[in-house]
Amino acid sequence: MSVVLSLFAIAVLVILPLIGTGLLQLEYLFGVIIPYAAIILFLVGMIYRILKWANVPVPFRIPTSCGQQQSLSWIKQNELDNPSTFWGTVKRMALEVLFFRSLFRNTKVELREGPRISYTSDKWLWLGALAFHWSFLIIFVRHFKFFAEPVPIWVDTLQLLDGFFQIGLPIIYVTDAVILAALTYLFLRRIFNPLVRYISLINDYFPLLLLMGIAATGILLRYFLKTDIVAIKELGMGLISLHPVVPDNIGALFYIHLFLVSVLFAYFPFSKLMHMPGVFLSPTRNMANNSRMRRHINPWNYPVKTHTYEEYEDEFRDLMRAAGLPLEKDK
Amino acid sequence: MAEKLPKPEQLAEDIKYSPPPKDWMDPKTEFKKGTFNYSAVPSALDYLDLPNPGKWQPHDEEWPLPDNWQETVLEGMRDRLKKYRSFQVFMDICVRCGACADKCHYFIGSGDPKNMPVLRAELLRSIYRRDFTTIGKILGPLAGGRKLTVEVLKEWFFYFYQCTECRRCSVFCPYGIDTAEITMMARELMNLIGISIDWICTPAANCFRTGNHLGIQPHGFKDSVDFAVGDLEDITGIKVDVPINEKGHEILFVVPSADYFADPHYYGFLGYLALFHEIGLDYTMSSFASEGGNFGLFHSADMMKRLNAKIYAEAKRLGVKWILGGECGHMWRVLHQYMDTMNGPADFLEEPVSPITKTKFENAKSTKMVHICEFTADLIKNNKLKLDPRRNDHRVVTFHDSCNPSRAMGLLDEPRYIIEKVSNNFFEMPENTIREQTFCCGSGAGLGTDENLEMRLRGGLPRANAVKFVHDKYGVNMLACICAIDKATLPPLLEYWVPECGVCGVHELVGNALLMKGEKERDTDYRGEPMILGKKAEAETEVAQKEAKDAG
Ligand code: HEM
Ligand code: SF4
Ligand code: SF4
What is the pTM of this model? Predict the structure, then answer.
């Protein structure tokens, strides 16, 4: 059901620009207004959400410790998995963000007769996730060529590396193939892994399908339907320089691509895609495990009703005296 | 053990990891006997000034809820979203990748999909989505939002009291989403309308009044300690001195109350006393700070703080320099992660230094509280103890990392070092079941009740299964641990799944191996069980070795 609805939503999102630019001549709307609106929504929404998070205090220091703590000098600390310093935490975070280290730990449980439970390493999710995210990042950066003149040297270099494994003409980018494969894997996994299907919502299928739509239209534009790159660059340069122009020889397919990207940007701050900034703000992973070394301050630490020793002794004084326990007040 | 319990093979047989075809949004929770905890009794709630709806039980059709209960819960949620960044961020960023799904012992042992950590969190997150997010407010169920109904509340009660706050799931989550923290929030929300369980609230009320969960009054505390002193004298011939509530000592020693009251904790307690006597430690215990454990942790941050306050207060009143803490899991979670923040700063204490080895415990320099395993490992490393590991030769030992010392502190190698020095037969369980990946006993966070036994046996299955593995492979017959809840709940668990294996504290092994000055000849351990290598046997081997040498 969620899958069908997500598919339906994507279909609508494809048809809108098709009709809009194909029939109704709304190129300016789809080429300029919607992209601008999407970017504004993205930036404002993202900053709003991040500030909202950052404004919430972290009352307690509760990092996950996944290794030996800093302890006696002769016991080797696991600085990466249980950092007690700022730099240790930075290293841990870098590995999480760049290589999805925790996901690398993933195991799969199996229950056999006996009962006998086994845990086998299961790295497919890690591989698929890493493949998707890295190719997304590279493709994203490659798009800078549409927004800068001259094209920065590092964008060119990246492009060259990406296209290194040349298969026929035009040059096929490795990342184009990888991102489609990875997204397909992530999508099929949601459908065929019974546990993952059970937890999946529209909120999960939709972004995957949206990304697949973006990748697919992008690939079509590049390899199958000849597109006027010069015109598209003109549009891109116009957008980035805030002097938008709409060249006429741009096909509907491009507007579909652009519209889906706009939807992604607009949807981003309201969705689980916020895990991108979120991972940096996750208190279990961005704090050092040093709560016995340095006092962590809770800004809202208010007084609570306690039971004092005096009240305790008042209640039990006679019994304590009879038991020979020392007393504060012996009257 | 309850009569209606299925046989182990049977219990395991009906575990299936295939969720039902229909989605989970529309709940109907069945409170099956053996799988839930009884409700909190009004007298305990009253004593703690907590709201309460009166007499009820979870399986009642009608729950006596206040009229505006939804408002109260949602208001409480808003409040906590503003107070805890963890809560706010965890509500927002889960991608439902499912990496945590099969990491929870309750899921592994029950196959109930709502015991997947991600889904446990979703039970709350779905309410959050509907009432606190833009998209959820507009799209409602289409965006995965749900309305807070009585059925949802019942489901919360069932599943948030089927989470032991063990944090195993957070180890695998790419963002470190800690479902334990979400469970804590959910429990706090239910507390606001008096929905709570007895096994948390009654111990908390006891603890507030008498200083310990068991409700032992000061004279009872002294009796227990005197009893232990007597037992130790019978076993070793040495009479140790244990000061109680005395001012002017260097160290305050705090233990979980089960240590001086329950079996097998008690033998570990004897171990501490023997150890302190042997090294001449200048310490006192307190009949008021007679509980390091803190069931407030399983209730609410406020309750935790209320119960924890006595520890620094007693340290101050008694004028000690620093505090030493015994073997206990959740107690150490509170001491390590919360105490200094909540009830500190402990500027009236000094940075802890071992009076015997002069080692500075740098890692405890602010909180000023040292774990007994850190303390003892340091003693052993500095050759301050005479140990004969052969006195534990009748034990083939494995070590269970308790959730909190491992995943809230990272206390992994200290106890292992100690065990290796006091025993000759130490075998690790498989790597996915120890250290930071350790499995819960299945009964933590206030769930260790008799009425909840079936669920506990299920939740404890992954742990027990790993014990069975080393039992079959190496003949392991003793599961050592450093947690009072473990020592109470692992024995029935193993009784069910691995009946040939016992449970002990690490300091029971220390005590057994400790050669005390002037001790009498011993041929039994603290439990009165014969030691294979007592003094006599030691002599015998020496003779045998000599003969072998002479012959060779
Ligand atoms: C700092 C940057 C980021 C990090 C560290 C990160 C990390 C992760 C991780 C660890 C997962 C879980 C594995 C998985 O389900 O694939 C994930 C999932 C996902 N990420 Fe990211 N991500 C980042 C940025 C982004 C961005 C910019 C996007 C989209 C444009 C994105 C889209 C997704 C999607 C759609 C999923 C879910 C995949 C699925 O449904 O299976 N991520 N991310
Ligand atoms: S591992 Fe983390 S992100 Fe993935 S489903 Fe579990 S809680 Fe969500
Ligand atoms: S904290 Fe432990 S019990 Fe709770 S959901 Fe996570 S793994 Fe399960």
Answer: 0.94
